[in-house]
Specification:
Layout (H helix, E strand, L loop, with lengths): L5 E4 L6 H10 L4 E4 L1 H10 L5 E4 L16 H5 L10 E4 L1 H9 L3 E3 L4 E9 L13 E8 L2 E4 L5 E6 L5 E5 L5 E4 L11 H12 L7 H15 L4 E5 L4 H14 L3 E7 L7 H12 L2 E6 L13 H25 L1 E5 L4 H6 L22 E2 L7 H10 L4 H4 L13 E2 L5 H19 L2 H4 L4 E14 L4 E13 L7 E2 L4 H11 L5 E6 L13
Helix pairs in contact: 6-7, 7-8, 13-15
Bound molecules: xanthosine-5'-monophosphate (XMP).
Length: about 525
């Protein structure tokens, strides 16, 4: 398998994920990347077929408006021509503006709109009607095209420029949202774009699963394999893929260092059973003492969690089973964040850069999480697997912040997480929005009154984020009554005097508190 060949540069639109889904359902994979990751991606790979610039709730002139990196404008195909582009809504403005066109705050259009095709034979419009309904949502408009560019469609009622292209027909802008179901031919247009500018179709769950299994069969015809197994979507899907080939040659291991939420171990056992993985649980509760003298996140991730808690049992399992290779659920974004595609190191993932002296195979290294979810779903695995919220490998060790980790604080975080989840699950309009929930003990002592009088204790931070790729995220606000209930319940704990919601977007914040 290879990395996706379409890049969707996310300029912070609510609909970006729909673009990816529409392409996928037409058989094409795409990588959703924010502008800085787009830069890393284009610098390190010359296999991109085309770039889609998403919409976004911005004006190109606004301070801080998201801008594609300069590599987007200079990246070339092997024949030396510019990479084809499709700018959608705000992406359409950016595309015209960057090439000398004008964008102005006028001709706003919202909702269902009829357009007239000026060039009905243009490939993007193949198989669609000369007049058709699209879905618009914009305040600014392109009012003048760059020199030599041409109009492909107009809004019927006003004559606004609704679509354009450059003289080569490869730099295309559409003012509407083809990824919205209200654009009646939207899917068809994306498919036309993909067929015109893409390689062959590359999304086919059945063949992707068999190609990973074939590779496993070829590379590892004999010998045992081991894999760390959290029971999350990535490791469960790796287990599912590998167990189908290796059968009784595969052994998975979950380490319980008292750093798991109440239900994680049960889920891991259940998911091991479902995926056919032989599974052992290593109890490492005695290792919590290692954290007595540190509050530093990277020390926890690397020196302690990785080297002293995570690696020794894996090495023991390797020796015990005489393993010849090991498997990991590392994804494409993990490699991007760890700097392995050429960009900056955001954080050292607890599971990258480990050398066990035997070959490592990461069958998901070319996939994004939304693709793993879609594959796991297509393969018929249960929702508890494909829809599972991510949980970081070091677990609750990252959720006791600014104070050394102890069993008592871990138990407090577990209790708090139970409380918050129970309340939010009763509020589906909030719960269903959440991509990841973080409940953490924040150790800064603050004064409070707890029955007997004045005490100094920490607080519980609650953070819910909505995200597509976990590289950028939007903080979610809780309704006041829901938050009041959470706060009241959390502060009953003797170690907690405050509770606070943290809704800052990533960036500048991150998903986790450390
Ligand atoms: P941040 O906090 O960087 O996290 O926005 C992005 C996603 O990665 C998870 N995360 C980790 N996962 N080991 C992991 O396996 C780690 O050290 C680690 N740190 C963060 C985080 O929970 C979120 O899903």
């Amino acid at each position: 398998m290879e990395l996706p060949k379409f890049v969707i540069t996310d300029l912070r639109s609510q609909l970006t994920k729909n673009i990816e889904r529409e392409f996928r359902e037409e058989g094409y994979r795409s990588a959703i990347l924010d502008p800085s990751k787009t830069k890393d991606w284009l610098r390190s790979s010359n296999k991109t077929d085309a770039i889609i610039l998403s919409g976004g709730d911005w004006s190109v002139y606004a301070k801080g408006s998201p801008q594609p990196p300069k590599e987007v404008w200079t990246a070339k195909r092997p024949d030396g021509s510019l990479l084809p582009k499709l700018g959608i809504c705000y992406g359409h403005h950016v595309l015209a503006w960057k090439h000398g066109g004008s964008v102005e705050a006028r001709n706003a259009e919202y909702g269902k709109t009829i357009i007239e095709l000026v060039e009905p034979d243009f490939p993007l419009f193949r198989g669609t009607e000369p007049e058709q309904q699209v879905w618009m949502n914009h305040g600014d408009s392109v009012t003048k095209l760059p020199e030599g560019w041409r109009i492909l469609a107009r809004t019927r009622a006003t004559g606004n420029i609704a679509a354009f292209c450059d003289p080569t027909g490869t730099q295309i802008g559409v003012q509407w949202h083809p990824e919205s179901t209200h654009s009646v031919n939207g899917r068809r247009m994306l498919a036309n774009f993909a067929a015109e500018f893409g390689h062959s179709k590359d999304w086919n769950p059945g063949s992707m699963v068999s190609s990973i299994r074939d590779e496993l069969r070829e590379r590892f015809p004999s010998g045992n394999a081991i894999m760390p197994f959290s029971g999350g979507v990535d490791s469960s899907f790796v287990a599912y893929l590998a167990a189908g080939v290796l059968g009784l040659r595969l052994f998975g291991m979950t380490i319980d260092a008292d750093n798991l939420r109440r239900y994680d171990l049960g889920d891991a056992k259940k998911h091991a059973h479902i995926t056919g993985l032989q599974h052992v649980v290593i109890n490492a509760h005695d290792k919590v003492g290692l954290f007595a003298c540190t509050t530093d996140a990277e020390t926890k991730r690397k020196a302690i969690f990785r080297n002293q808690i995570y690696v020794p049992p894996i090495v023991r399992l390797k020796d015990e089973k005489d393993a010849r290779f090991w498997l990991q659920g590392t994804l494409a974004p993990d490699l991007i964040e760890s700097g392995e595609t050429g960009g900056a190191v955001i954080k050292s993932h607890h599971n990258t850069g480990i050398n066990l002296g035997i070959p490592e195979y990461s069958p998901l290294k070319d996939l994004f999480k939304y693709e793993v979810r879609a594959l796991a779903k297509a393969e018929g695995l249960p929702e508890s697997i494909w829809n599972r919220m991510p949980f970081p490998g070091p677990g609750l060790f990252l959720r006791v912040v600014g104070i050394p980790v102890t069993h008592e604080l871990l138990e407090c975080v577990r209790d708090s997480n139970d409380i918050v989840e129970a309340i939010l699950r009763r509020t589906p309009e909030v719960w269903d929005e959440i991509s990841q929930l973080v409940v953490a003990y924040l150790g800064t002592p603050m004064v409070g009154q707890k029955g007997e009088g004045r005490v100094y204790r920490g607080s519980i931070g609650v953070r819910a984020v909505k995200t597509i790729d976990y590289m950028t995220a939007e903080g979610i606000y809780f309704p006041k009554d829901v938050w009041k209930e959470i706060e009241r319940e959390l502060t009953k704990h003797p170690l907690v005097v405050h509770a606070a919601p943290y809704s800052t977007d990533k960036p500048p914040a991150t998903t986790e508190f450390e």
